[in-house]
Amino acid sequence: MGCGCGGSGTVVLVLSIWGLLLISLSSASRLGVSRQKLELNRHLNRFNKPPVKTIQSPDGDIIDCVHISKQPAFDHPFLKDHKIQMRPNFHPEGLFDETKLSEKPKEGSNAPNTVTQLWHANGKCPKDTIPIRRTKEEDVLRASSVKRYGRKKHRSIPKPRSADPDIINQSGHQHAIAYVEGDKYYGAKATINVWEPKIQQPNEFSLSQLWVLGGSFGQDLNSIEAGWQVSPDLYGDNNTRLFTYWTSDAYQATGCYNLLCSGFIQVNDNIAMGASISPISEYSNSQYDISITIWKDPKEGHWWMQFGNELVLGYWPSFLFSYLADSASMIEWGGEVVNSEPNGQHTSTQMGSGQFPEQGFGKASYFKNIQVVDSSNILKTPKGLGTYTEQSNCYDVQTGSNDNWGHYFYYGGPGKNPNCP
């Protein structure tokens, strides 16, 4: 029996509708992709300013020499008419006395050597420019979102004494630090041993830094931070890199790493924030370290940063902050890692050298010559130095003092081990 229902016509109609649906879905998908691409390009243009000169670093980084007046800081509405301060009015008293201190610890062994940045091998930036590490498309795409690129997650500050174990478990951040609190602080200094710790997961990091903190540990925390870090998520490799960070609202909407937002004003043409440090300390071999000083200029009120004994890098304008517009209430020095392992397991991401403090010089990582700046703008040894770590079987800290190193501490550890499952 034949059917006069026009089956082939129905099939053609269905196929046509299906085809139109696929085309519209494809168009919508392309539209979504093009919007994402537009947003990505907009952010890349904001990060990457037109360079006067470009330098290819041996590690794959591209360093753009950008005119000092075109740097990202001046995207900030409050900085539109800002006159760049090329040098601080005052350095902390005692800053240059420490070159007289012996660089060699009582334990003997190798004296630390000079540290530089890898890109210096292929050139330098001209006068009136600053070196900026170029942000690549893949850098931004590694972030959880375009808007979160260059920012820390919330709750990444060690909170001594009143640490809540639930907070520790939720944030996944672990620390081994020395700290002072209970006074007004106007800066901090440290010489930090430089290593290249192994990172287990790409979304984890390991850093060694100093924190200049103001306010409570709630939503209003002010923080200025600087040191070295290994962060595959942020940089796309396992190199040890110089970094800075700031926030005025506990990492919620303000602040960023390095120059990835408006805020920090760089004045130095020799050091690139986020660029690789070289060489790195080796176990039972040559040791390398960097010195970082952060202090508040008594006249202008800006927070300045110096690298080594002579390289003034730039400043955070005081208007960026609420509490730090006056002074800091806590200073911290030490290491931090991210543990992303679930169900109470522990990462094998290393802190410092990956060795526990008792290993000592040439094996464990150290901070030495740690100091604070008082209200008279004088560098002093910290009083009432405390230590803090969430899990000392994973990462630990041990303080000491002597004539050569002033106040110092060894810190770090391997993470996962038989006593830290």
TrEMBL record:
PROSITE patterns (alphabetical): NEPROSIN_PEP_CD
Pfam families documented for this protein: Neprosin, Neprosin_AP
Signal peptide: 1-28
Source organism (scientific name): Lupinus luteus (European yellow lupine)
Annotated spans, Disordered: 149-168
UniProt keyword list: Signal
Comp. bias regions, Basic residues: 149-158
Domain Neprosin PEP catalytic: 167-421
Stored PANTHER family: OS07G0205500 PROTEIN, PROTEIN, PUTATIVE (DUF239)-RELATED-RELATED
Domain of life (superkingdom): Eukaryota
Protein name: Neprosin PEP catalytic domain-containing protein
